[in-house]
Design goal:
Layout lengths: L3 E7 L2 H11 L4 E7 L4 E3 L4 E3 L2 H9 L3 E2 L5 H11 L3 E5 L7 H5 L5 E5 L7 E2 L2 H7 L4 E8 L9 E8 L6 H24 L15 E2 L18 H10 L6 E4 L5 E10 L11 E4 L2 E6 L3 E10 L7 H8 L4
Parallel strand pairs: 1-2, 1-6, 2-5, 6-7, 8-11
Antiparallel strand pairs: 3-4, 7-9, 9-10, 12-13, 13-16, 14-15, 15-16
Length: about 300
């Protein structure tokens, strides 16, 4: 089979891992990439390219920036004339004419089992809702958000201790394992896409993981909800709470103690032996395993607890 002329659209580390897999697969000819333009990064606001651009420059793959402008999308089509376009974590809404131009369409990889959790934060949403599984959906892109026909889906179990980071890494790895074969079969006409059931569609948005949504109230929130919030909100925005003196405390990891001794009233913080504990509703206690208190650096918990013994 001859190589498929493929244009890749993406910007972050997830997209880079997918691009690497396709670039190293002899079935695909990566004729170019479209990525976000160079942007200021970090405290010094140093102008840096995306990971995708850095990789492409090193691999001598042509890079293009569309800047969300239709004229530049038309220029990209004239420049690359792709048979297939693959999109992963790109960051722009594609024009209708661009979506319809490639012979085999624009294929998108979405980290949920569509039509559930269309939108921006499906992994975090699945953890927040306490779902037992998620997965990846490979879809033929249409203009409407994550609404295209499904080419293939692959489920993945959500482990009890999964975080946004750990689950995301597995889904990225799964994408690399299955996407090339699916794309080959799709382009060879061996797969027929299936329309989504619009009546079953649910959505998730950036506002679902806003900092205000990451506030934990140990006096009222059930322990399992607290645990899910902590796991879903790493590495951003990070779950947080207010200590009795109104200092903010970021929470990166917790464990639920169902039969604590001693028991603590909901919202009461206490250092017990070498653990930093807080009471929650239902007679359970939350063991705070990794936290950062406002005004302090992110330090080893043993050192932090030693300094908290006189306070709690």
């Amino acid at each position: 089979m001859r190589q498929i002329k493929t244009l890749f659209l993406g910007s972050n580390w997830e997209a880079l891992e997918t691009l690497k897999v396709l670039h190293n697969d002899k079935r695909f000819d990566i004729i170019g990439t479209i990525t976000q333009p160079d942007k200021p990064v970090g405290r010094n606001q140093e102008i840096k390219p995306t990971m995708i651009k850095e990789y492409c420059l090193d691999q001598e793959i042509q890079v293009f920036h569309t800047l969300a402008k239709k004229s530049l999308y038309r220029e990209a089509l004239e420049k690359f004339n792709p048979e297939l376009a693959v999109c992963k974590s790109f960051g722009e809404i594609l024009p209708k004419f661009f979506i319809e131009a490639p012979k085999f369409g624009v294929i998108n990889v979405h980290y949920s089992l569509l039509p559930k959790y269309r939108g921006a934060v499906p992994i975090q949403k699945a953890i927040l809702e306490g779902d037992s599984q998620t997965g990846i959906s490979i879809v033929k892109m249409v203009r409407k958000l994550d609404a295209g026909p499904i080419i293939s889906q692959f489920p993945e179990k959500i482990q009890p201790d999964d975080t946004n980071i750990s689950l995301r890494k597995r889904l990225v790895q799964m994408t690399g394992n299955v996407l090339p074969d699916i794309l080959e079969k799709w382009c060879a006409g061996k797969i027929e896409a299936t329309k989504q059931n619009y009546a079953q569609a649910t959505y998730c948005w950036e506002k679902d993981i806003a900092k205000s949504q990451a506030l934990i109230d140990f006096k009222t929130m059930p322990a399992n909800q607290i645990d899910r919030m902590v796991r879903a909100f790493v590495p951003w925005p990070v779950a947080w709470c207010l200590l009795p003196d109104n200092r903010r405390m970021k929470i990166f990891k917790v464990a639920i103690v169902n039969d604590p001794s001693p028991k603590l009233d909901p919202g009461v913080f206490k250092v017990i032996d070498n653990d930093f504990m807080v009471g929650a509703p239902g007679g359970v206690v939350i063991d705070l395993l990794d936290v950062q208190i406002e005004g302090k650096r992110h330090m080893d918990m043993a050192a932090l607890i030693n300094g908290l013994k006189n306070e709690f």
